[in-house]
Amino acid sequence: MKSKVKKNILKLKESSTLAINEKSKNLIKSGKKIYRFGFGQSPFQIPNKIVETLKLNAHRKEYLPIQGLPELRENISKYLFERSGVKYSKENILITPGSKEAMLLMHVTFNGDIITPAPSWVSYEPQAEIGTNKVHWLETSRENNWFPSAKELENILKRLGKSKNKILILNSPNNPSGAICDNLKELAKVAKKNNLIILSDEIYTDLSFDNSYKSISKFYPESTFISGGLSKWCGAGGWRLGFLAVPSGMKDFMNSLKSLASESYSTVNTPTQFAAVEAYHGDYEEYKLKVRSILNAVGLYVYNNLKSNKILINPPQGAFYLMPEFKNKRYKTSAKLCDAILNETGVAMLPGSDFGFKPKRMLTRLSYTDFNGVEFFKNVSINKSISEEMVKTYAPNVVEGVSKLSNWAKN
Fold it and tell me: Going from the N-terminus, what domains does the chain have, and what CATH number goes with each?
């Protein structure tokens, strides 16, 4: 009997980031001590004023415009302009139920090939497959901070030829490496020369530890799409509010995205859109500064206590991830390595193979957010640096899990 499911959908698996979260929860329920380094979720409380705005608008039940609340789109337009100097008008911004949905709509709309660096977020490739677009992986190196060089991008474009439209996906700060791309201008030159479209996933850009907002749109605004949202900097992952900013010269693309939105989710839920108006209008720089300071301190603790001749690792630069590489010959794949670490230490991580690396490469993604962000946040002053003792006090699970991981690697 023929399958009732389309072949490209049948190949899909449950997102590994969500799967490790469920697995960790189930292991904890069964009584096991688990260090939840597998799922990337902000541990911090949403700013009170944004929560209060949501409450004040909870009674609203009207459908909003497909494209999103005009005031919200205007605020996001200003937010992007203030940070990058590039003007995406409110007419070119689509509000979506999370930035993940924004990118999925783009994949479904786009007709061509996708270039994604290894490592990349776990959903880029499956979303491209849903959109029936072919993915071409672009290998990166630790020496280049896990981003492609201009020459490497040029080479893959030459190899692929000019027969199809192409998108390069860039994510900085990066999930899974926590690294920041420092050669955006050079990549933009290559993209412009080859008429390449860029999808700049900027969901973590407000969590850059050097307090700078770097966007490739500054160098290549005419063909750079930007996705973002509230889930990371604002801690509102479950609220599911994101956006896609579309270059001004791509009206047909914008109209097609709106049509897709209208035939799928219709419009993003109304109370959250009103709350997001406050999120993108209010002054939350002090909140972000404290969040970045905590994440940087915890990330540096993990880095300093893992780096060794047994574990190769780059220092954290943003988001809340690190990508340790284990000098271990006992396991055939990074997935087997992660299974062994989970079984023997209780530390849950994701294998590098989930992010585009070859299975034999012993890389993992470590998310260092297994701590009570509310308590940590309350006890941090913006005028004082965060000591190692504070990390030990307010992030004990991270400290204990890192110790277990370090000791395991030595054996």
Answer: 7-45+285-410 (3.90.1150.10), 60-281 (3.40.640.10)
